[in-house]
Each structure stands twice: as C-alpha cells, then as structure tokens.
Here is the input.
Amino acid sequence: MSIKKRAERRESEKMSSFSFHLMDLTFRVVDFFFRPYIDKRVKKFDIREGMTVVDYGCGPGRYTIRFSRIMGEMGKVYAVDIHDLAITAVKRKITKEGLGNVKPVLASGYDSGLPDCCADVVCAIDMFFVIKKPSEFLGELKRIVKSDGMLVIDDGHQSREETKRKILNSDHWEIKEESKDHLKCILVSRV
Ligand SMILES: C[S@@+](CC[C@H](N)C(=O)[O-])C[C@H]1O[C@@H](n2cnc3c(N)ncnc32)[C@H](O)[C@@H]1O
Here is the structure.
C-alpha cells in the first residue's frame, strides 16, 4: 500500500477489505445463533411504517433489511456507509430480498450526500465508537434529520460515559431517553 493511501486510512475510519470481510463473517455467525436479538433491538427504536430512516454505517445491511420490512412501500431506507464493500453487500441484499425501498449511499468522510432534513430517524448502530471526529459526524447527522426527527445511537465498543460525553460536547443533540441498549437523541432546541 502506498504511503499516501496509508495516510488516508489513518485519517478516515475506513477499514481494510480484509477487516470488512472478517466482520461480515463474524456477523453471519452471530446472527445465525442470535437472530432474534436484532429484531428485539429494532422493535425498541420507535420506527414505523412510512417513515424515512437512515441506517448510518450500515455495514453489510443486517439492520437495513429489518428497517426496510418495517418501512413498507411508503417508507424509505437510506443505507449509508464509507466502505464500498458495504454498499456492494447491501445491493446484493436488495436484489435477493426484493427490497424496493432501500437506497444504498456511499459516503465520503462525514458527507453522506443525503438531502437536508430528509430523515425521520437516523440510526447509528455499532459504529459511533470508530468515529474520530464525533462533533463533525454528529453535525452531518443533524443536517439530514428533520427538525422533529430522532437519532438512535449506541455505545458499541466504548463506555456509556464516553458516548454521552461526545454527544453532549457536540452541542448538536440532547439525550431524550436512554436504556442499556441505546440512546435516543433529539436536536438541541434552537431558541
Ligand atoms: C461495526 S460495523 C457495524 C455495521 C452495522 N451498523 C451493524 O451493526 O451491523 C461499522 C460500520 O460503520 C462504517 N463506518 C465507519 N465510519 C463511517 C463513516 N464515517 N461514515 C459511514 N460509515 C462509517 C464502517 O464502514 C462499518 O461498515
């Protein structure tokens, strides 16, 4: 790998293709044994038919599929990731499962390219802990959510304390509700 590429990778959260494949394989094994776990989680995210949901950091799309089924024909799911392999995996799932309401989106840095205020709910599941510039990232999530929209975010591999500190330091979001599994945030009110 060239020095330039190495430097770019250090700057960004994009993992190597090998790591992505390994993660995908691990998810498949875990999902095989603990399939109801994801369904149980998603039920608590307050997403309803007809909504527009963004699965930010969708990975191979294990949550995207669930969101798509709940959203129905009138709803929409944007599956956003910085890794081209994630987008390829989601496209494969769209074809295999016939998910007409899913649009895969390749992000660049913290730019999803999605329209302003397009989402009722943004879900950032098992990914916030890898984000190197949390305030910039949370700013992008703020841009794409509707003014009365919601962010569902979890800790992943960091402590709850760290998750909350990053969210509150960003000045973009306030925590509305939290459970052991995830936090629900709304936009900081603009007076
Ligand atoms: C551990 S995986 C989780 C995937 C999925 N959310 C799940 O729980 O199955 C984290 C994903 O976040 C993506 N990611 C990391 N940084 C990102 C960024 N800045 N923008 C979009 N996606 C990002 C990674 O490429 C990876 O696919």
Strands lie at 52-56, 76-81, 102-106, 119-124, 145-153, 173-178, 183-187.
